[in-house]
Amino acid sequence: MWRVLVLLAGIAGVVGFFLPLRSFSTPDGMVSAEASAYQIVTGIGDAKQLFEQAQKLGMKQADAERMAERVNQAIQGYRAAMIALFVPSALLTLVGLIGLARGKLQRFAGLLALLLGIASTAAFVLILMLVGDLDIKDRTVSLTLNSTAGPGMYCLLGAGILAMFVGAGALLRPDED
């Protein structure tokens, strides 16, 4: 039983890597965008969504391109952090797959799941605390983007909580053959 739950926790965290992690919008809500950890790691490119919205609001093409590039640069600073914060989820998936292959989840794997669950929960808290609003300032562009948590963050939190529960359960009562 524990091995399946560890696998589900890992999969939830891995899915969270691909879902929107943070949503960004101007205070008036006229310009908005989302970014998943996957997009941050692989590169958002030209922040096309923001660029198109800025042009619809009447911003000149050169200013809209500059604003999109500045937003992209601000988000790219988090590339390595995104990889590090989702590694526990990948490892949880691996622990779950090994548990399925072996047919049981023993105490050592339960300890790993507990530690990885703590790491995933801590990653959620770090993202929540560290990734805040973006202030984009340039000689022609001044923009503040408010940041809110997206479903990817809640998948990371859910993976952490489930893994802590399963890890504690496997430590107290490991799976039998």
CATH class: Mainly Alpha
CATH architecture: Up-down Bundle
Helix proportion: 55-70%
Radius of gyration: 20 Å
CATH third-tier fold name: Butyryl-CoA Dehydrogenase, subunit A, domain 3
Helix count, DSSP H or I runs of 4 or more residues = 7
Largest sheet: 4 strands, antiparallel
Strand order, main sheet: write it out: 2-1-4-3
Low-confidence stretches: none
What structural class do you assign from the helix and strand content? Answer: alpha+beta
Strand portion, in percent?
5-15%
The count of β-strands is 4
User: How many discrete domains?
Assistant: 1
The separation of the N and C termini measures 11 Å
Shape: elongated
List the helices and strands in order. Answer: HEEHHHHHEEH
Q: How confident overall, as mean pLDDT? A: 78
What can you tell me about this protein's structure?
By secondary structure, the protein is an alpha+beta fold. The protein has helices at residues 2-18, 37-42, 48-56, 61-76, 79-102, 107-130, 151-172; strands at residues 20-25, 32-36, 134-137, 142-149. A hairpin with a 6-residue loop joins strand 1 (20-25) and strand 2. The chain is elongated. It starts with a helix and ends in a 5-residue tail after the last helix.
How would you summarize the topology of this molecule?
Elements: H1 2-18, E1 20-25, E2 32-36, H2 37-42, H3 48-56, H4 61-76, H5 79-102, H6 107-130, E3 134-137, E4 142-149, H7 151-172
Summed up:
The protein has seven helices and four strands. The chain is α+β, with helices and mostly antiparallel strands.
Question: Which terms would index this structure?
Answer:
single chain, about 180 residues, alpha+beta, Butyryl-CoA Dehydrogenase, subunit A, domain 3, four-stranded antiparallel β-sheet, 7 helices, 4 strands, about 65% helix, about 15% strand
